[in-house]
Amino acid sequence: MAEFVADALRGAIVKGELNPGDRIVERTLGRELHVSRTPIREALKLLRADGLVEISKNRGARVTGYSSKDALDLFQVIAALESLAAANFATRMTPDMLGRLEELHAAMVADYHNRNLDAYFAANSAVHDYIVAECGSDVLAESHGRLSLRARRGRYMAIMDAARWREAVGEHQTLMVALRAGDAAKAAETWRIHLKHTGDAVARALDEAATS
Question: 193: which residues sit within 8 A by CB, 6+ positions away?
Answer without folding.
Answer: 171
